[in-house]
Design brief:
The protein has 70 residues and is an all-beta fold. The protein has no helices and three strands. The chain is flat, with a radius of gyration of 20 Å.
Length: 70
């Protein structure tokens, strides 16, 4: 993974381009993420964090397999 096109946003420097490459099964896949803008400390309405009434509960995580050290 490489980061480039660093710019300041809200006094913090961020990479506006992220390039990653993965090799699996003999094939190579590349992904380029380009960010148009970053806003820092923007007010967000509390209502965005309220769980919808009809939302299904999160499933329970499976127990760790024995012998994995977890």
């Amino acid at each position: 993974t490489s980061f480039s096109d660093h710019r300041s946003a809200g006094g913090i420097v961020f990479p506006f381009k992220i390039n990653s490459q993965v090799q699996a099964g003999g094939q190579s896949m590349q992904q380029m993420i380009t960010i148009d803008s970053i806003a820092v400390n923007v007010p967000i309405a509390d209502s965005l964090f309220i769980m919808p009434k009809n939302a299904a509960p999160m499933p329970k995580a499976p127990a760790p397999a024995e012998g994995t050290g977890e």
